[in-house]
Amino acid sequence: MRWSQAFIPTLREDPADASAVSHKLLLRAGYVRQLMAGVYSLLPLGQRVCQKIAAIVRAEMNAIGGQEFRLPALHPAELWQRTGRWQAMGDEMFRLKDRRGADAALGMTHEEVFATLAGELRSYRQLPQIWYQLQTKFRDEPRPKSGVLRVREFTMKDSYSFDLAPAGLDRAFQLHFDAYRRIFGRCGLDTIAVEASSGSMGGSESIEFMVESEAGEDRVAFCRSCGYAANLEKAVSLLPEVADAEGLAAPERFPTPGVRTIEDLAQMQGGAPASSQIKTLVYVAGDETLLVLLRGDHALCEQKLADGLRATALRAAREDEIRAALGASPGSLGAVGVEKLRVVADAALQDRRDMTTGANQDGFHLRGVDVARDIAVGLWLDLREVAQGEACPQCESPLDVVVCIEVGHIFKLGTRYSEALGALVLDESGAKRPIVMGSYGIGIERCMAVIVERCHDAAGIVWPMRVAPFEVVISAVNPKQGATLEAADQLYDALQKAGVEVLLDDRDERPGVKFKDAELVGIPLRITVGPKGLEQGKVELVARRSAASQELDVAKAAEYVAELVAEERRANLIR
Q1: CB 3.0-4.6 Å disulfide test: which of 183, 355, 431, 503 passes with 369?
Q2: What is the pTM of this model?
Q3: DSSP assignments along 49-89, one per residue
């Protein structure tokens, strides 16, 4: 490809509305353009990168026995209704009606469709199966942001495993785990595999593949000593034991005028430290109003609450609902003596005594509360959010809470979808059994953006060669000078014949512009062909990542560079 004929619309300044590094650089370097909020066009350079990522994904999926499909993006509502996800997906699902008034949706994911196809399997002898696709997905994100990191339309590799028994699912899950490690490694990404919530997908276990980045929205508890890692929606930690005083024979009410927060009560004379307070929250799960209790210095993880309750709809109660239920406003709430509402409490409150909580009367609290004696807890759960520095549950070293971007997620689904959609096979005894499923996803454009987040410098993108849009750029200095352009053309032709992906910058631009564009676009190797060097029979080779340069004999340059590229390709194929 000649730069003069290519569509590479580079920008000199950062776009005003871009905050994430990848958003800025993918726009500036001419890889993507925004069409509307959360919807982006891939320009030729972006398409080339995504095709390379997809090729790596395909190679590793095929290596574990995957068979590629392409399924519709338009789904009938009836499939999603049968699994219960038509309602559970809420506003993130794009819904529409066809001209006959039938409900349909744009696919967020394809469990329902693949499970329907699996209904054509008849015997255990046809199992196991691994099916996958690279297909467009649609999600009506409430806050599309950071370029292609959080969007409403994107390409996903989603794969599905089908087995007769849980042991088969365990094997398929491990095959995908290992394949994902190889995929991300070949893309130049170091990932942390973390325990995660399965959310609306359901199932018994899920693992997210995370990359540390300040552009991320996920927080992960990570032990750098033993490797324990979990999304905060799933993470646990060890807390120091608390030695409570014996307390009072019964809770004692006392005035707390103006106290509205945990901190207010901690600072009030005669109050209590946050660790000796009970925080009372009111939530609505489906049609049920319930009380949620935590230690005053702990934060609630809503996903843990939703998972523990198996709630598909969960929200904090409104103030009018709170007053109707308890007769007081937030800041004065408590569970002592409450009988009509279910009480869900965090495990850190078990066996605590001499605690302080709201009295369900504005301006009053109770002291001397014994949780076991005074509060009718209906359900104990792990509800609190793990904090920086708390002890690792495996080795007791301090945990780091790091900001990450999710690049992949794998799920053990079990039989939820196969039972709902009739995907049954006959086992060895002739009995019908639901197929055991797994689901596994990777976002292609997100991978591209995360690579940029991890691989850039002040000048622009620094692509790993295996995913770069081109492996080599030839910068012809003063191309109007006939000998220079002729030498650049010969080098270009020789590299193309050697199978190297090469871009010839033959534009009539100043050398500084060409060098800056090459750095911004991030092509791994740059060959500079200019009149001064050619007088000595030389061209200059510069490595984008290290900035190391060397002079090459013009007659041997193509062979030398082609071998460099071949070595990189061979290294990338090692698994």
Answers
A1: 355
A2: 0.89
A3: HHHHHHHHHHHHHHHTT-EEE---SEEEHHHHHHHTHHHHT
